[in-house]
């Protein structure tokens, strides 16, 4: 392929009859604060450093369409859209600044009007004559996802941003406006115009690029895969978008291309920067493989899309499925129940929120995504197993989660070849508990568990422990009949409390009026901590145990608090006995 590099200034680039079109399936505007700050600093340095006459801003790689009738040269911009878009925004801000200066009549009004016309025709709209009529062609059009919003900015008719790239475009415009305000802080209009003239001269003459032109229009997505913009490398989602759109780009099936493009646009709008992580969850759930950060694009293409001989119809079918599955995965990552028509109670559906949000266990999200193919009751069983396992294995016994993750991925593979059973999954995880979170290890760790000042950390483990015991306390008190099945049957779903609505309360107070040395040493141990009903709002504080006793036994609806009737006096022996009761309950409740 013949490439003709042409080193020129931005002003010269737009003085020529060049117009630029970003390929329709190119990524959106990607520059963040650090790239934008570098850009503005470069401009400032040229203005301030009189010894430096120019600065190189990188390359623009274009596939240039053949000129017809001497009109504009249309450049398919396959690399460099970030810097060229930013230059265009700067020119737009410069025009807007001139408009602002001309709001009130002044001695320079005619000059300012001429500058507005000159800048607009050079950087915003290319003027040409067709059949003795003047027509205007936009100098730069962005990809479909960004162009309407971009045009609203440069035309002064702003619209609400709908995706991350829109927010970045708007943020860039604001920063460039602020730069111009700081540049023209002089009080007189005369001096402000001098500063704007100096800036325009810098843009026109000192900001240089290499305009690399190929005479043959190649598939834009192929170039897009191998060229990175300054400071913001292409991510795997960008590559997947470009590749799948390239595969769907068939002149005989344009409607399919439009459907696939719309799916990518919707994914970008709905998930933004989360999209790559969600695709990773989908990939692992589908294949049972770990995502390799350096090779995810190749993994996804090989095992999900297919590299060769994939017809546009098949690409659409796969992308449509991905869109539906990512909707479920997104719900799971937010702790939401993925079944739209549920027959389970609110408490049961909330277990996924407890697992993902309260316990912060995200490793099994691929497994949960794959498990949505199960009946809802089986999916619930999987969530409950994961919840209990993770609390015991990781939160309390502090084991690394790697071995469990391996088993999660194995379960994904079993789900996808129809060999998965909840019982076998329990068996696999139980092997880890027996080895590294046995009853003895679990109880030993629980004895060390202490309440901590919320300002210094959270009490997630202690809160979950007591809530879990509360849920199954009736079953434990009644002799644990029917095993795990009986445990579920005995849960009073209407009286179960959530993390956000219940507080932890010390029985022997944190700031006792008269300190008891024996009690102080176990002040923050589990035996001295209970749950306080959400409707009781305020802490019981430092009131006497006699008053607290009546409050807990008579007014509280928490079952654990009713058990204080067994402890009419709160002393070291009472605390020790209650600790043993809680540990005995925990040992059987947090098992499967």
Instruction: Provide the structure class.
Output: alpha/beta
- Could you give the distance between the termini? 65 Å
- For the secondary structure, the number of strands is 10
Strand content: 5-15%
Helix content: 55-70%
Q: Evaluate the radius of gyration.
A: 33 Å
Mean pLDDT: 89
Outline type: elongated
Low-confidence stretches: 217-221, 227-232
Tally of individual helices: 26
| Spatial order of the strands forming the largest sheet | 1-8-3-4-2-7
Main sheet properties: 6 strands, mixed
Task: Name its key features.
elongated; 592 residues; 6-stranded mixed beta sheet; 10 strands; alpha/beta; two-stranded antiparallel sheet; 26 helices; single chain
Plain-language structure description:
- The protein has 26 helices and ten strands.
- It is elongated, with a radius of gyration of 33 Å.
- It has a six-stranded mixed sheet with strand order 1-8-3-4-2-7, with helices on both faces. Strands 5-6 form a two-stranded antiparallel ribbon. Strands 9-10 form a two-stranded antiparallel sheet.
- The chain has helices spanning 10-15, 33-48, 81-101, 109-124, 144-154, 164-183, 189-206, 220-226, 236-248, 254-271, 275-287, 296-305, 312-333, 346-349, 351-358, 365-371, 376-396, 402-416, 422-436, 439-448, 460-477, 483-489, 517-520, 545-555, 559-562, 572-589; strands at 3-9, 18-21, 55-64, 73-79, 125-130, 133-138, 140-141, 207-214, 503-506, 529-532.
- Strand 3 and strand 4 form a beta hairpin.
- It is α/β, with parallel strands linked by helices.
- Helix 10 packs parallel to helix 13 and helix 18 (402-416) runs antiparallel to helix 19 (422-436).
């Amino acid at each position: 392929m013949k490439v003709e590099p042409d080193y020129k200034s931005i002003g010269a680039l737009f003085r020529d009859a060049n117009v630029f079109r970003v390929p329709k399936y190119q990524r959106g505007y990607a520059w963040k604060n650090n790239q934008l700050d570098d850009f503005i600093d470069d401009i400032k340095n040229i203005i301030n450093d009189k010894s430096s006459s120019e600065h190189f801003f990188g390359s623009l790689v274009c596939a240039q369409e053949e000129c017809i009738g001497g009109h504009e040269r249309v450049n398919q911009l396959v690399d460099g859209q970030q810097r060229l878009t930013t230059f265009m925004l700067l020119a737009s801000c410069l025009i807007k600044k001139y408009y602002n200066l001309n709001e009130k009549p002044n001695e320079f009004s005619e000059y300012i009007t001429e500058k507005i016309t000159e800048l607009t025709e050079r950087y915003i709209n290319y003027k040409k004559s067709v059949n003795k009529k003047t027509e205007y062609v936009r100098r730069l059009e962005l990809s479909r996802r960004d162009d309407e919003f971009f045009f609203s900015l440069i035309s002064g008719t702003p619209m609400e941003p709908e995706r991350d790239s829109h927010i970045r475009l708007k943020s860039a415009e604001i920063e460039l406006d602020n730069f111009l305000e700081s540049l023209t802080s002089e009080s007189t209009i005369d001096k402000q115009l001098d500063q704007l003239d100096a800036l325009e001269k810098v843009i026109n003459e000192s900001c240089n690029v290499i305009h690399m032109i190929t005479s043959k229009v190649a598939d834009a997505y192929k170039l897009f895969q191998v060229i990175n913009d300054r400071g913001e490398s292409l991510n795997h989602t960008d590559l997947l978008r470009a590749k799948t759109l390239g595969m769907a780009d068939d002149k005989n099936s344009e409607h399919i291309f439009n459907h696939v493009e719309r799916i990518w646009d919707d994914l970008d709008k709905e998930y933004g920067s989360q999209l790559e992580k969600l695709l990773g969850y989908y990939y692992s759930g589908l294949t049972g493989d770990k995502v390799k950060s350096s090779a995810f694009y190749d993994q996804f293409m090989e095992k999900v899309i297919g590299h060769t001989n994939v017809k546009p119809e098949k690409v659409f079918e796969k992308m449509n499925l991905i869109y539906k599955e990512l909707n479920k995965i997104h719900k799971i990552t937010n702790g939401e129940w993925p079944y739209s028509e549920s027959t389970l109670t609110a408490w049961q559906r909330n277990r996924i929120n407890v697992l993902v949000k309260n316990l912060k266990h995200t490793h099994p999200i691929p497994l949960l995504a794959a498990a949505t193919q199960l009946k809802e009751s089986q999916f619930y069983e999987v969530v409950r197993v994961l919840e209990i396992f993770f609390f015991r294995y990781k939160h309390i016994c502090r084991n690394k989660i790697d071995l469990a993750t391996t088993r999660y991925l194995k379960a994904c593979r079993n789900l996808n070849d129809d060999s998965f059973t909840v019982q076998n999954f329990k068996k696999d995880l139980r092997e880890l508990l027996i080895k590294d979170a046995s009853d003895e290890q679990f109880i030993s760790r629980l004895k060390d568990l202490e309440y901590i000042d919320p300002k210094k950390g959270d009490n997630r483990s202690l809160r979950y422990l007591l809530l879990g015991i509360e849920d199954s306390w009736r079953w434990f008190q009644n002799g644990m009949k029917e095993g795990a099945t009986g445990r579920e049957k005995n849960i009073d779903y209407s009286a179960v409390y959530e993390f956000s609505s219940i507080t932890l309360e010390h029985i022997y107070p944190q700031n006792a009026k008269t300190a008891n040395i024996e009690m102080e040493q176990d002040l923050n141990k589990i035996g001295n901590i209970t749950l306080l009903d959400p409707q009781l709002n305020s802490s019981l504080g430092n009131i006497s145990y006699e008053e607290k006793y009546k409050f807990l036994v008579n007014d509280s609806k928490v079952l654990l608090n009713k058990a204080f009737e067994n402890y009419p006096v709160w002393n070291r022996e009472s605390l020790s006995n209650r600790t043993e009761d809680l540990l005995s309950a925990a040992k059987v409740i947090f098992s499967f």
